[in-house]
Amino acid sequence: MKHLILLSVLALGLSSCSKNLIPYTKQLQIENDWNRADVQRIQFYTSEDIILQRKLVDGKIKIESGKIKVVDGKKVEEVVIKKGTPGIAVYFPDEDRVGISFEIDDAHFLTFGPNPKKGEQFFLFASEWNNRVGRVTYNDVAYYTSPESSTAHLLVNLKEIRDWDIKQRKASGRKVN
Asked: What are phi and psi of 120, to 5 degrees?
């Protein structure tokens, strides 16, 4: 019986530590009246793996953050951003889009924006889409996404945001001497 109670308490404790990830939406941003400085304090996560690829020209091979693969006899640089990878907002091209960096510097970012067909969730933004393959710019270099990357969108930890809002509005008060 002691073991059952201990196991129940342990399971409850672990479940309370887990992340409550929800899609980041335009509505969430509006409801909370977040400005750019607020958005830069939010921890974002990827909903799916994002795979970026670009062909390398022989003699001009420079790998920065990816690995080299040989696909159909051609050298390809591949950058993989795994599902659940944390990222931060580093760039705001306009009111509706945000650049999220999943790497060590601010130059390596991907742009996300609200998709009206998907409840205004912030999906991976590409300059063009063709058969679910997107053309994106990453560190000022053109890459193509895998088809699976087309469903990638931003997630946020609702518990962290709620704690952040509560901490932001809590005042301890002052007394007259």
From this structure: 65, 20
